[in-house]
């Protein structure tokens, strides 16, 4: 049964509606920006500096998963959105049906190349190394959830 939305929801400004509809991704992005600012101004050899660096990798992964599962598709994975397209070209259909995993692989390779050209012990080298690890973990989980199950998990088939 379709009920009209309450009057207070209908009369919100477009900006407030946008913030309400995208509050999870906006909050995750705000945390990521905060960790970057804190890390930029910290000493990575301290506990807090190392924490901020790890937080950058973790929250960048969170942002990618939040936005990636919102806009991209991985057929057979409970984490992605459902494919509703009707693409006739097999190659384009493959790209559309596996856009989430292909995005993670492509950007993961880019991060790995950046990391390979950096000093791994530099301030940002450690962060980029953690991001490469995060990307590999995300791609692995997306791929594994296509075939494997975990009893009691709503994401499992």
Topology:
Elements: H1 7-10, H2 14-21, H3 23-40, H4 47-71, H5 90-97, H6 99-116, H7 123-144
Helix pairs in contact: 3-4, 4-7, 6-7
Q: Would you write up a description of this structure?
A:
With 157 residues, the protein is mainly α. 66% of the residues lie in helices and 0% in strands. Helix 3 (23-40) packs antiparallel against helix 4 (47-71) and helix 6 packs antiparallel against helix 7. It is globular.
Count the DSSP helices: 7
Q: The biggest beta sheet, please?
A: none
Overall pLDDT: 88
Gyration radius (Cα, Å) is 19 Å
User: What is the chain-wise order of helices and strands?
Assistant: HHHHHHH
The outline comes out as globular
What is the terminal separation in angstroms? 28 Å
**Fraction of residues in β-strands:** under 5%
Question: Which spans of ≥5 residues are poorly predicted at pLDDT below 50?
Answer: none
Indicate how many domains the architecture comprises. Answer: 1
Could you give the count of β-strands? 0
Helix content: 55-70%
Structural class computed from helices and strand pairing? mainly alpha
